[in-house]
Amino acid sequence: MSDQQTLREQRLREKAYQLWQEAGSPEGEDDRFWQQAIAATEHEEDALDETVEESFPASDPPANSGIIGPQVARKRNGRQAV
Length: 82
Description:
The protein has about 80 residues and is mostly helical. It has a domain at about 5-55. The chain contains three helices and no strands. Helix 1 (about 5-20) crosses helix 2. InterPro entries: DUF2934 (IPR021327).
């Protein structure tokens, strides 16, 4: 089992336990809470995926970083670029 699968299963267990406790800890309904945890986790993952898709790509540089190359710096200082 990969680390990602292990982490997801752990999240599911925690969510199912939380839902079970919130429902008053009823006996014999573990499958219901497991299914609810799966649905809730999938919903959270889908929402996160949408947020990431809509976010500013990390690979795009900012419009004005203030960082200039050595040739531009030399031109600004009146020296000839090499």
